[in-house]
């Protein structure tokens, strides 16, 4: 069952939503009174109270067995409600994915800028130390100048910490003397 059945004027869907909201309201009241979905014994929310209370209430009053037609209607209503909840859940999953996709790039872009200066300084130190060893040469692309050129904040943090400047690569162009 989707959001609407073909030829449906929306009344069946509204009735089904009312049924779901009634069950959720009963659940809320049960939880407020100290019951739980995962509880045991008297502390557990009775699923019959949530979804088919009238079916069992009528039976208890009249001291009769369940009427087959009423049972079929209740079962159909619960199955339709479950299908609607699945559809709502899928819609919620799509919305979550859309918001995640729309914001993930922004979060990644701002990730380092949200770090405090002392942590950013520590990352800079590790980057420089990992880039330098006594046996290999230090390349310009690993120099603190590169870190300082990323952004205004990176420049402020890099210039404020002298420890990362102990390894600096300076490249000079060869100038040929004029003859």
Please explain how this structure is put together:
By secondary structure, this protein is mainly alpha-helical. The chain has two domains: 11-110, no CATH class; 113-166. 61% of the residues lie in helices and 0% in strands. The chain contains seven helices and no strands. The chain has helices at residues 11-32, 47-51, 53-62, 68-110, 117-131, 144-148, 152-160. Helix 1 (11-32) packs across helix 4. The model has no long low-confidence stretch (mean pLDDT 79).
Pick out the low-confidence regions: none
Average pLDDT score: 79
- Gap from first CA to last CA: 89 Å
Please report the total strand number as a whole number: 0
User: How many domains is the backbone divided into?
Assistant: 2
Strand content: under 5%
Proportion of helical residues = 55-70%
Shape: elongated
Question: Can you summarize the main beta sheet?
Answer: none
Order of helices and strands: HHHHHHH
The value of Rg in angstroms is: 33 Å
Structural class: mainly alpha
How many helix segments? 7
Question: Descriptors for this entry?
Answer:
2 domains; mainly alpha; 7 helices
Q: In short, what is this structure?
A:
With 179 residues, this protein is mostly helical. It has helices spanning 11-32, 47-51, 53-62, 68-110, 117-131, 144-148, 152-160. The chain folds into two domains: 11-110, no CATH class; 113-166.
């Amino acid at each position: 069952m989707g959001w609407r059945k073909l030829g449906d004027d929306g009344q069946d869907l509204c009735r089904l939503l009312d049924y779901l909201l009634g069950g959720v309201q009963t659940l809320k009241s049960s939880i407020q009174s100290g019951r739980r979905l995962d509880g045991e014994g008297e502390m557990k929310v009775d699923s019959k109270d949530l979804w088919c209370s009238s079916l069992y209430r009528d039976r208890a009053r009249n001291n009769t067995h369940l009427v087959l037609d009423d049972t079929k209607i209740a079962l159909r209503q619960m199955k339709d409600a479950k299908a609607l909840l699945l559809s709502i859940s899928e819609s919620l999953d799509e919305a979550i994915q859309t918001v995640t996709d729309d914001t993930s790039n922004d979060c990644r872009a701002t990730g380092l800028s949200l770090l405090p200066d002392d942590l950013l300084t520590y990352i800079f130190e590790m980057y420089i130390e990992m880039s330098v060893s006594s046996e290999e040469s230090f390349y310009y692309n690993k120099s603190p100048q590169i870190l300082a050129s990323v952004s205004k904040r990176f420049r402020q943090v890099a210039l404020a910490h002298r420890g990362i400047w102990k390894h600096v690569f300076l490249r000079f162009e060869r100038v040929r003397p004029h003859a």
